[in-house]
Every structure is written in structure tokens, then in C-alpha cells.
């Protein structure tokens, strides 16, 4: 991994003075204000996190290192004979900000192969859990179980300078990331495929080997590559990214931090929404009892969900105010590969109807679909019908982004995170003062 580490070291050296200058010379410049609604309402829109790895514009959607999703897919080295790029090359791109050459990409591919085996004791931990344990619990536990491997902890205990923190963090990230698809495939085969496992393939890259170890043929390897890249990063404020960053800020290592982030991803308002979409569609089809779905029937079912006080999974977003380009990318994949598949047609019918229903309902600020609305149907089509596994797939992709971020957190020496809380009485006092000021102003 000498090329990746050398490139990252160069990027870090170039970047550090920028952060230092901002802090020293412009530290008191305001970038926003916090309202009472933001303090009570989940810090929505409060600008207090920094990352250069991705940026989410409410109307354009995500850009990875300044590139849109189509630009990202276009610029990266592709696996021969496949439509999607190497995930390993994408990792290089997220980490360094530079598009890797094929040679640089292949160095990461080979290095990941060497590091991807999961320790036997992790399998023992998983096997000790009841088989009906949710796969996200197993995935998080598997990551946490490997914490004893942390190079960062070892080096920290030996004593190292703060400026060196990023190197053992990178080492932990490089050890952990390639293991995640292998861990996921182990959980999948143990839970759903009679505990019959498939050995890794020495010639295959991360996406290809994942498809192989899951037991799915082509083009599932490309599905995996697309899926991991699309789910990788969505700037820093979402629950999984923020949790990983927050835990890492206490100098917890990559294993502790990622496991915590994955627990956040497992919530139904975040990553678990992808399984909820499939559950919603299957319940709907069951209720139809063989009847063809129509826009009218879909509309009624959406209202039934809303009137029961539940959310429409796969719709809405805390930042986005238009259709998620990650949804669009997957829709384009479906239009190309499974245009006539009934479940895809149903997803599309929901897309025609749900924004209108949600707008009429009048609560959500964004009635458009997010990444989770489209993803399950692709998995289902290729034979992965165990929908409670879908968030694990999200969790492999998300790791690429959040592990890149915490490597940079260490490189730039970001401090322990510790926002300040206030009491309700303090807010009431501030509110009363503001009313008084308004009254004086209107005199
Ligand atoms: N269905 C019904 N109501 C919705 C809704 C939806 N899809 N999306 C938002 N609302 C409601 C909210 O629950 C909230 O209601 P209350 O005022 O009663 O609390 C109101 O509309 C305002 O919410 P908002 O400001 O538009 O959205 P938030 O930033 O609070 O929440 C999100 C964002 C994603 C949690 C929300 O849109 C949601 O619950 N969506 C469904 C679950 C989902 O798809 N999550 C996946 C998001 C992507 C990801 O992280 O993976």
C-alpha cells in the first residue's frame, strides 16, 4: 500500500496549513447561527462539521470529492468487462481526492485481498448469537469483536505524537475495510444459506469477491460495486457518519467508531429504511391478493400508512429537497437491466403517486424519494430476497466514506467533539427577551 500511503501523506501535508490558518486567523468568523428550532430539532442545518470528502447540496444531491455520481462512475478505472469501477479505486479517490490510475487502483486491490480474511474468533462470536438476531446486530458485533486488532491502540499505548495518529488509523482502516464484505457474506450464508460458506476467490476484486462469496452470479458483482459506491458518503451530518466521527473524536479506534456508526445506520429513519421499503411493498401486494396494482390502489395504501401515523419509507430527507440522485442512478440501472420487472414497475408507480400524497399530507419538507426507495428491488431481482439483510449492504458502502473521514479527522487533529447544551428555561428566557426586543422595536 506504499503508493496510497505516500499520496495521502502528501495530501495531508498540503492540507494541514489550510486548517491551521483558518483556526488561527479566522477562528471567530461566524458561519451560521443557531435557532431554538435547531437546538430542539436535531441540529438541522447547523453548520458545525467539516469534511472535504463529499458535499450534499439540497437540490443537486451528493458530490464525491467535487464530482457528481455519473462523473464519479465515469472517471474511475473500471473492472475489465464490467460497467462499474473498482470499489478500491473509489476508496483511493475518496481518501486522497485524486482519481487513481489503473496501476494505483490495482495496488489497492491486491493489498485488500491480502487483508480480507476475518479471524476465526469473529465467526465464533457470530455463531454464539441466536440465528434470528438481526444481521445488522451481527455485522456491528463482528466489527467490534475485531477491535483487539487495532494498531492505533497499540501505537497509542506505546506513545506517539499527535501528528502521527493518522498513520495507525489508516492501517486500521486498511485492515478493516476489506474484511467487511467477507464478514457480511459470512453472516448471510450462516443465517440464510444453511451455514454453507464459499471461500474467497483469489482473482477477484472487492465487488466481485463479495458477489462470489454471497453466491450470486454476474452481474451481481457490478450491482455490489454500484451499491457500495452510491452508499459510501453523504457528507458528515447524517447519523452513521456523525456517530462514527463523534466516537472517533474521543480517540476511539476505527473498530469502535465504525461499529457505533453502524448501530445508527440500523435505525428505520436512516439505513434500515431500505428493508422497510420492501416490507411495505410486500404487505401492499399481500393486501392486493393477486389484484394488479393501480395508481389509485397505491394512493390509498400510502394514505393508510400516513393515517396510521407511520412514515412512508424511502421518502423524505433531512437535507435533500429533490429526488435523490442516488435514487436516480439506481432507477437508471433498473431501466437498463430490469425494465419490465413487476416490482420495479410498482416502485415506479409509487414514485408517480407518493410525492403528491406527501405534499397533500403537508408535513414533510421533501416529498421526493431517497436512496432507500429503489435499492431493495434490485437486490430482490438478483435473488437477495432476505430484506432484513439490505441495511448490511448499505453498511459496507457507508464504511468506505466514514473510514476515510476519520482518517482525515486524525490527520487534521480534530478535537474531541463536545457541543454545549442549554436548559429549557434558558431557551424560554432567550425567547422572552426576543419578544421584549420586538415590542420595543415596534414602538
Ligand atoms: N412519511 C411521512 N411523514 C414524513 C416523511 C415520510 N416519508 N418524511 C417526513 N415526514 C414527517 C416527519 O415525520 C415530520 O413529522 P412531525 O412534524 O410529526 O415530526 C415532518 O414530516 C417534518 O419532517 P422533515 O423535516 O421533512 O424531515 P426530517 O428531517 O425530520 O426527517 C427523514 C427526515 C428521512 C427521517 C424523514 O423524511 C423520514 O422519516 N422518512 C422516511 C424514512 C426514510 O426513508 N429514511 C431514510 C432516509 C435516507 C437514509 O438516511 O438512509
**Biggest beta-sheet profile:** 2 strands, antiparallel
Per the CATH scheme, the topology name of the largest domain is Citrate Synthase, domain 1
Portion in beta strands: under 5%
Q: CATH H level of the largest domain: which superfamily? A: Citrate Synthase, domain 1
- What is the string of helix and strand elements? HHEEHHHHHHHHHHHHHHHHHHH
By CATH, the architecture of the largest domain is named: Orthogonal Bundle
Tally of alpha and pi helices:
21
Helical fraction: 55-70%
Number of domains: 2
* Class based on secondary structure composition and strand pairing: mainly alpha
Read across the widest sheet, the strand sequence of neighbours is: 1-2
Q: So what's the overall shape?
A: globular
Distance between the termini: 70 Å
Radius of gyration: 23 Å
Distinct ligands, ions and cofactors found in the model: carboxymethyldethia coenzyme *A
Poorly predicted sequence stretches spanning 5 or more consecutive residues = none
Amino acid at each position: 500500500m506504499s503508493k496510497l500511503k505516500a499520496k495521502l501523506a502528501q495530501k495531508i501535508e498540503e492540507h494541514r496549513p489550510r486548517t491551521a490558518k483558518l483556526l488561527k486567523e479566522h477562528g471567530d468568523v461566524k458561519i451560521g447561527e443557531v435557532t431554538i428550532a435547531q437546538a430542539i430539532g436535531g441540529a438541522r442545518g447547523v453548520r458545525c462539521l467539516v469534511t472535504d470528502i463529499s458535499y450534499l447540496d439540497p437540490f443537486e444531491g451528493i458530490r464525491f470529492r467535487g464530482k457528481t455520481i455519473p462523473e464519479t462512475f465515469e472517471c474511475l478505472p473500471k473492472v475489465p468487462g464490467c460497467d462499474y469501477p473498482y470499489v478500491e479505486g473509489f476508496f483511493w479517490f475518496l481518501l486522497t481526492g485524486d482519481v487513481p490510475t489503473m496501476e494505483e487502483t490495482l495496488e489497492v486491490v491486491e493489498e485488500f485481498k491480502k487483508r480480507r480474511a476475518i479471524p476465526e474468533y469473529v465467526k465464533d462470536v457470530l455463531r454464539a448469537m441466536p440465528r434470528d438476531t438481526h444481521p445488522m446486530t451481527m455485522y456491528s458485533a463482528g466489527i467490534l469483536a475485531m477491535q483487539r486488532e487495532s494498531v492505533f491502540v497499540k501505537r497509542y499505548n506505546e506513545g506517539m505524537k499527535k501528528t502521527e495518529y493518522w498513520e495507525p488509523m489508516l492501517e486500521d482502516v486498511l485492515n478493516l475495510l476489506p474484511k467487511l464484505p467477507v464478514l457480511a457474506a459470512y453472516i448471510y450464508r450462516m443465517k440464510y444459506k444453511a451455514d454453507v460458506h464459499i471461500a474467497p476467490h483469489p482473482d477477484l476484486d472487492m465487488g466481485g469477491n463479495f458477489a462470489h462469496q454471497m453466491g450470486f452470479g454476474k452481474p451481481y458483482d457490478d450491482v455490489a460495486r454500484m451499491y457500495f459506491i452510491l452508499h459510501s458518503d453523504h457528507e458528515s451530518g447524517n447519523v452513521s457518519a456523525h456517530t462514527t466521527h463523534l466516537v472517533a473524536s474521543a480517540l476511539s479506534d476505527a473498530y469502535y467508531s465504525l461499529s457505533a456508526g453502524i448501530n445508527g445506520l440500523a435505525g428505520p429513519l436512516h439505513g434500515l429504511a431500505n428493508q422497510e421499503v420492501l416490507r411495505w411493498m410486500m404487505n401492499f401486494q399481500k393486501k392486493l391478493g393477486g389484484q394488479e396494482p393501480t395508481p389509485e390502489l397505491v394512493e390509498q395504501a400510502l394514505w393508510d400508512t400516513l393515517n396510521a401515523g407511520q412514515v412512508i419509507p424511502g421518502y423524505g430527507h433531512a437535507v435533500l429537497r429533490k429526488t435523490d440522485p442516488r435514487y436516480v442512478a439506481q432507477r437508471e440501472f433498473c431501466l437498463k437491466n430490469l425494465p419490465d420487472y413487476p416490482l420495479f414497475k410498482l416502485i415506479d408507480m409509487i414514485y408517480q403517486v407518493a410525492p403528491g400524497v406527501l405534499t397533500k399530507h403537508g408535513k414533510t419538507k421533501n416529498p421526493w424519494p431517497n436512496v432507500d426507495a429503489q435499492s431493495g428491488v434490485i437486490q430482490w431481482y438478483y435473488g437477495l430476497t432476505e430484506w432484513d439483510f439490505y441495511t448490511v449492504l448499505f453498511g459496507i458502502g457507508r464504511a468506505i466514506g466514514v473510514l476515510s473521514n476519520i482518517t482525515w479527522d486524525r490527520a487534521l487533529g480534530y478535537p474531541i467533539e463536545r457541543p454545549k447544551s442549554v436548559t429549557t428555561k434558558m431557551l424560554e428566557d432567550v425567547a422572552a427577551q426576543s419578544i421584549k426586543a420586538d415590542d420595543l422595536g415596534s414602538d
